[in-house]
Design brief:
Oligomer: single chain
Shape: globular
CATH class of the largest domain: Mainly Alpha
CATH topology of the largest domain: Helicase, Ruva Protein, domain 3
Structural class: alpha+beta
Helix content: 10-25%
Order of helices and strands: HEEEEEEEEHHHHHEE
Number of helices: 6
Strand order of the largest sheet: 1-6-7-5
Radius of gyration: 19 Å
Length: 268
């Protein structure tokens, strides 16, 4: 957390504040380490103009001109806020001071968030898999990525090196929407089942983006607002409650140390 819909919501919310503005100052915490080992020296971004904000997997990416980028992974409790004269808070880990008096403040209570300054293909630099919302991510491509793997499909969906951006919430919700049990071996799913799962995943992710993401823990968007999609969860966090389709109690199991929610009747 945050996952793809929350990161997409944050990136979209930041854009009106930062695009076209020059980075005049960049201050950041030194301990514990904030930057990934493959990062360029962070000071190189000073003086560059932000040409765009986007999402790559679970990273918020500031595209700079000339072509550099600054990627921020929020991990569990990271937040990104932007505003004119926005002041740092007690959990602030980094501040981008931009032209026109706009500040971007990265806060992180648990200090797990990470940054990276780089150039070139961000997916190669950071080892990010394909994007589930990209039109180039087809069921055939997903089939090639899964191969004959014996990993449970829920665990496979969380592998950011294969399919980037999906986390625990939306893996559970997509599997429910597709009628696939989370413990199924990913390599045993037919191409038809993978196509149905990919379509369900895209539908769930787009619905979540429209609702500003899910606020089940500490997530807030770039303007400090909570998401609303948690009100539409079908299985996640609903252990013991009746399935909205068949009324069977939702079950919770643990896969790869993550709580996993599913309906034993509707998912096969």
């Amino acid at each position: 957390m945050p996952e793809l819909p929350e990161v997409e919501t944050i990136a979209r919310g930041l854009a009106p504040y930062v695009v076209g503005r020059r980075i005049e100052e960049f201050s950041h915490a030194r301990r514990p380490p904030l930057f990934l080992t493959q990062s360029l020296p962070p000071d190189v971004i000073r003086g560059h103009t932000i040409s765009g904000v986007r999402r790559a997997g679970k990273y918020v990416v500031f595209d700079l001109d000339p072509p550099l980028w600054l990627a921020i992974h929020l991990r569990m409790t990271g937040t990104l806020r932007a505003g004119r004269g926005l002041a740092p808070g007690p959990a602030t880990r980094a501040v981008l001071r931009l032209s026109g008096g706009v500040n971007v403040v990265f806060g992180d209570v648990r200090k797990f968030g990470r940054m990276c300054v780089g150039r070139g293909d961000i997916r190669d630099v950071l080892g990010i898999g394909v994007d589930p919302l990209s039109p180039t991510t087809t069921p055939q491509l997903v089939r090639r990525l899964t191969g004959r793997g014996t990993t449970p499909v829920k665990v496979w969906l969380l592998d950011q090196r294969k399919l980037a951006g999906v986390g625990n919430i939306y893996a559970c919700e997509a599997l429910y929407a597709a009628g696939v049990r989370p413990t199924r071996r990913v390599g045993k799913l037919s191409l038809t089942q993978l196509a149905r799962l990919l379509a369900a995943l895209r539908r769930v992710l787009r619905d979540a983006i429209r609702h500003g993401g899910s606020s089940v823990d500490d997530y807030l968007d770039a303007e400090g607002k909570a998401g609303r999609f948690q009100k539409h969860h079908r299985v996640y966090g609903r252990a013991g409650k009746p399935c909205r389709r068949c009324r069977t109690p939702i079950r919770r199991i643990v896969l790869a140390q993550r709580g996993t929610f599913y309906c034993p009747v509707c998912q096969h």
